Each structure stands twice: as structure tokens, then as C-alpha cells.
Amino acid sequence: MSLTQMFLSQLADPFRVGLMVALVFTMARTRAVTGTVLPLALGVVFVAVMIPMTMQTDASEPLWQRAGVGVLANAVILAAVLAIRAAIVRFRA
Asked: Cα 62 to the chain's mean position, in Å?
């Protein structure tokens, strides 16, 4: 599987998208104690490493490559979720 195919398949993974939505929700609820940037960055890396390590697949790519592409995919998903959240907050006020 090429890097582009891997990236696109990770973008379309509903489990990954759900984890990123939950990460933003948790960050918003605990912002006063933990801040914003560090929890989001650690969450992106955690999800990117956790998913390939726990999924039983016959992938020929090494773990570091799947996790690296996962970090990029998670960052794109996170940016979209944060943009949607910002739009909702702006239109509510």
C-alpha cells in the first residue's frame, strides 16, 4: 500500500475520527487544568500509535511508517474538528 492510500484510508477511518472528536471534547472540558496545545498534541500521537499497535492486520508496512502517516491524518482530522467546533461556538454566541 502506498503512503497516499494509507493516508486516505486513515482519514476515512470512523474510529479515528471518533477518537479525535472525543479528544477535542475532553480538551474543552479540562482546558483550565491541562491547557490546550499539549493535550491535543499528545492525543494525536497516542491515537496514531495506538491504532496500528492494537489492530490485527497483515500490513507489510513497519509500525513507525503507519504511525507517522497516522500523525498526519490525525492532525488533518483534528484541524477539521477544531474548525467545526469554532464555527459552532461562534454561531452560538
From this structure: 19
